Amino acid sequence: RAAFGAMPEWENARVPVPEGAYPLFLTNTTQANFKCREREDCTSAQPYVFVSKKVFLDDIQFRGVISDFHPTKKYIEKYPDGVDVQEDGTSGLLLVWDEDEDYGQNFYLVHSVELKEAVVAKWAAAGEGDAAGESGGAGAMEEEEEEAYVPPVSKPWVSLGSEQELENEAVVEGRGRFILHLSRARRLFGAKPRAFFDRDADADPCISENDCRPFTDLKFGGLVREDRSVGVQAVPLVAPAATQTNSRRQVNVAAQYDARELSAGARRATERSEPFRAFLRRVRAPCEQALQQNELVDITADDFAELADDETSLGKSDANLRELQHFSHLDYCVDRTIACADWLPTPKALVVGVSCVQRLSFEERVAIAGKIHTGFVLLWNFSDPITPQMVLEAPSDVLCFRFCPTNPDLVAGGLASGQTVVWDLAAARREAQELHADTGKELDKQEEGSSAVVAQPAFLSQVDLSHRAAVTDIAWLPSALEVSEKGKISRESEPGAQELFATTAADGQLLFWDIGRARELRRVLAAGGEESPAKKKKREGWGPTHRLPLKAPAAQGGAELACISMALSVPEDPAAPCELFCVTEEGEVARVSLANPGSEAAERGVTSVLPGHCSPCTALCRSPFHADVYLSVGDWSFSLWREGVELPLFSSPFASALLTCGCWSPTRPALLFVGRADGAVDVWDLNDRSHEPFLSVAVTSAAITTLHIHTAGTKQLLAVGDDLAALHVMEVPRSLRRRTNSEKDQMTSFLAREQRRVEYVQKRAGARGETASTEAAAATGEPEDEADTMGDDEPTATDPEGSEADFLAIEAAFLERMGLKR
């Protein structure tokens, strides 16, 4: 290479670049365009290609300064045209791949004819040498393959004393190792505390080393900007257009907006006129036809909304409960669980209340029994998911509460101490507004964390006059019912305010409470004055209007029933009986008669107790579409009951977890929701399938304690409370809240079919019982009571000895026929 002349000014060149060669860096795009790709077009055996001079110039002209060959333009132009095409096929300039980058780049261009011939000759000679070497190596390999392979022979090992030398040189510990631990306090390291602060860049003492100033890069000094002449026409195009406006003739128009009224004489004359009578005769038939069509077809129905309703229960595309809101509080919900939930009975305001009770074991509750500890009922508003709207306080844990259906400002609750409490939300809001009137702040614009209104009990029952156990359920009585002190329940012709409610507990009592009596007692205590001893004893405190003991019938033992949940049945017919259904801690379903106007000899109390579940029941709900059908939840299953039927119409298969609560859908007759102890909610569609839930949704990781559904406009919201005192509000999808046209009829048929099955099972059980008793009587030889009426020709029992002799004869004949007789 030195023979061609050296050019030492090239950067990154490890060897001198000969004169006539120009190192270039070619990108992958350029290599593909000129067909000189590394290790594909250019290889180690032939690392060069020939490119025509015209191809180089066309690329430089098309790509300009961005062309990789633009720096070699003047050398390419000086290349002689006569040698561009040669007879031996080597045409054009030589472009060589520098595999080792000896010249500092991956390619170099040979623009000299002499250097071109030398490079081609050099690589041609190198190719011949490699071919000869390959042929010689092949011959040597053939000779080596001709030699026979002799495998090595193993010999026995002979010791020469090396193992003894290794054993002598080995180091053996003669004593145990000493372990020395050195430490030093960190404060003795001598490190001084460092203080960091901000300062300007010009105040840096090392600014000479840290300063980054602009400089001129010599590699980009030769860049030349190209100028292009471009003309722009900014004048918009103009097109001629014409329009013709037709003129209108102006006329005077008058509009009458007052109804014309005829006088009495003119009206009678018009009604008696023949044209008016002819008009009525002409339009009478079409009007009657239109009215009849309106009776047959609902002209206001939305036909598009009814499309595909029959398939809504067959798919799960949109049948999924979506969590809409989550409510929890750091102060009121710590170490507590939700015992009850209820929605405010107003269609506009989305307010849900939850009672948070302490999560205690039985031993811990026994230890704190009789002591006062504050219980809470939180009212959550969807407009503020962080702070509750109101906090209802009580002297004990609130296990159940219910809003008054007709007056949402009244809330009745049952405490763990057996007492009954009533809150007045309207009075609590007035007191809160008066309390904050002096501060100049509005009630709903207080500081964060203090906007919750704390309501104290308006009425609290006396401990001695209340339940002997924790209150488990509350039910408001309709305003048309009236309960006297003797327990007589009657209907009033003019219903008043709804102020009566009933409570039940595990003490076997049903108590009726009157809020009007509590108000009267407050007025008497506020007025003061002397009273007679009898009247003073009667007004010692607020107590129930009547106590109804819940005891099983004498035929079933007469034990007290520990009720957990109840459901009232008050028909609209005044002559129909009023009843109450409840479930107990023993898993039983009890029926209680409250009033029966059609029977004078009817007694109030428990009329029947039916076994339902093998563990305590947790919920009892009445169907909103079938007034005589009830849902009971307990152990690992739920059951459907009907009034007058002693067995459940339907019992679900056992679930994988305990069932804790349940409720009916308010819009679909065959749909119900069941909560489980593993945090999932099962949705059952009995018209679709009855062997498994239609849908199972995992809501939380804790056990679900309560379910309560609410309809707000077109939406349905399901309040789900868990064991961690968190309230999850789930939105029910459209497919689970919109019923089909025939769903109620299908559910009615399902219940009727199940009732027929239960009646058949009862009938078969009775027949089998009679058969068993007959067989038992025949085995003991005792005639039945009806044997006296039978004739002498009909035997009443079978002789045991005769039966044994017949059996032995049959056995002997069988053995003889089989050839087995000995």
Overall description:
The protein is an alpha+beta fold. 24% of the residues lie in helices and 24% in strands. The strands form ten sheets. It has a five-stranded mixed beta sheet with strand order 8-9-10-11-15. Strands 3-6-5-4 form a four-stranded antiparallel beta sheet. The longest helix has 38 residues, at 743-780.
Task: Lay out the secondary structure.
Blueprint: E1 6-7, E2 17-18, E3 21-24, H1 28-33, E4 48-51, H2 53-63, H3 73-78, E5 93-97, E6 107-110, H4 113-146, H5 162-169, H6 207-210, H7 264-272, H8 274-296, E7 322-327, E8 336-343, E9 351-358, H9 362-367, E10 375-381, E11 390-394, E12 398-403, E13 410-415, E14 420-424, H10 425-435, E15 453-455, E16 459-460, E17 471-476, E18 481-483, E19 489-491, E20 500-505, E21 509-514, H11 515-527, H12 533-538, E22 546-549, E23 563-569, E24 578-584, E25 588-595, E26 605-611, E27 617-622, E28 629-634, E29 637-642, E30 650-651, E31 659-664, E32 671-676, E33 680-685, E34 695-698, E35 704-712, E36 715-722, E37 727-731, H13 734-737, H14 743-780, H15 800-818
Parallel strand pairs: 11-15
Antiparallel strand pairs: 1-2, 3-6, 4-5, 5-6, 7-37, 8-9, 9-10, 10-11, 12-13, 13-14, 14-16, 17-20, 18-19, 20-21, 21-22, 23-24, 24-25, 25-26, 27-28, 28-29, 29-30, 31-32, 32-33, 33-34, 35-36, 36-37
